[in-house]
Amino acid sequence: MNSDMKSRDAETVVSSHSVFGAPCWVSLTSRDLPATENFYAAVLGWRWRTAKLGDHFRIALADGVPVAGIAGVANLWQMAVAWTPYFAVSDADAAAGRARERGGTVAVGPLSFPPGRAALLADRHGASFGIWEGALFTDWETWRKAAPAFIRLHTRDAFDAAIFYGEVLEWATEKPGCCEVRYEANEVVLRSEGEVVARITSGALEAAPDPTIRPHWQVHFLVSDVSTCVEAAQHHGGTVLSHDANEAVLRDPDGAQFTITSRRGR
Fold this sequence. Notes:
The chain is α+β, with helices and mostly antiparallel strands. The protein has helices at 33-44, 74-77, 92-101, 140-146, 158-169, 226-235; strands at residues 23-29, 47-50, 57-62, 65-71, 83-88, 105-113, 116-122, 128-134, 150-154, 180-184, 187-192, 195-201, 216-223, 239-243, 247-251, 257-262.
């Protein structure tokens, strides 16, 4: 999370307190910022601006709307190259504490990044995610429409994961504005204000947990033409892991995996 999320209009700030539990940002670590910028500009049409955190950070813009953060610190901090979702929480310290109590790991933070606080965590099966407490974009609904279609957790036991995240992020509580959780078509589905914002999957209901799965959050970006984006990814050094008319799983030149999903097929 970054200080570019500071509100442009104090009277209309949306905070993590009012949309707690929902995904509110995605970030990517990179070993080569210029190469990363060129790749995502070609594949997703993003433009870039420098973040206030310093030269190692960039903000991705889709039609002028900030949609993601890129941190060129993978080598400096010896971090894995990956896309990471951040969830809004009303209290970062309390959420980090709940994660520890339930077998999760707090890798970084919570740290202050005005106008809020952030931490990088891992669930008890090793999937990384972040939490954010503080102000969000003034045009929150615009961000939600321009940002990823949704995020999906691939894990070994969807029900166990749903319990962990539900308790840490306060899903399905009696608090006003909390996220709704339902089991639909072999997935746990998370909705915020009626919209699907996350899914948790581990295979069919009757299937035993698959020990070969490496639990991770997969970020899905909406695109107008999957095939065009696939061609651009291949031309700019990316790898196509799977591809059909409505969706493709890609890996950028640095190794970060993500999914593109057709607006028509969503």
